[in-house]
Amino acid sequence: MISYEQARRLVAEGLARASANYAGRPICVATCDAHGFLLAFARADGAPVRSIAISQGKAYSAARMGVGTDVFLERLQRENIQASSFCDPGLTGLPGGAVLKDAAGAVLGGVGISGLAPSEDQAIADGLAQSYGTF
């Protein structure tokens, strides 16, 4: 289970990583629990309004699918299917979502980043997921 405090720290760290590594370009960061329900969110000053829903959708999708959204996108493309085939309108294959797991590999939640290029969003999300245990 992800606590609110851990979720809040992940959001703060995501904003800090964007500031340090991407010239302070503004992003939105969302974290959710294993069911995809939002725990913490922040929109940096100047981040696109569309990035609010996108970041939350990326976090949700990672948690619900149990894989990063980049991996989910690869599956969609490989199998030539649409995300809508999963009968869940909240799913997205846009890169920038990473699954949060415990040491045993159980899904605890997801983190979603939006506002940069898809590969940059994914890099931040993956970095947060890899360092999750330190929060």
TrEMBL record:
The species this protein was found in: Ancylobacter crimeensis
PANTHER family listed in its UniProt record: PROTEIN GLCG, SLR1406 PROTEIN
The name this protein goes by in its record: Heme-binding protein
Membrane-spanning segments: none
Gene3D superfamilies documented for this protein: Haem-degrading domain
A Pfam family it matches: HbpS-like
Taxonomic lineage of the native organism: Bacteria, Pseudomonadati, Pseudomonadota, Alphaproteobacteria, Hyphomicrobiales
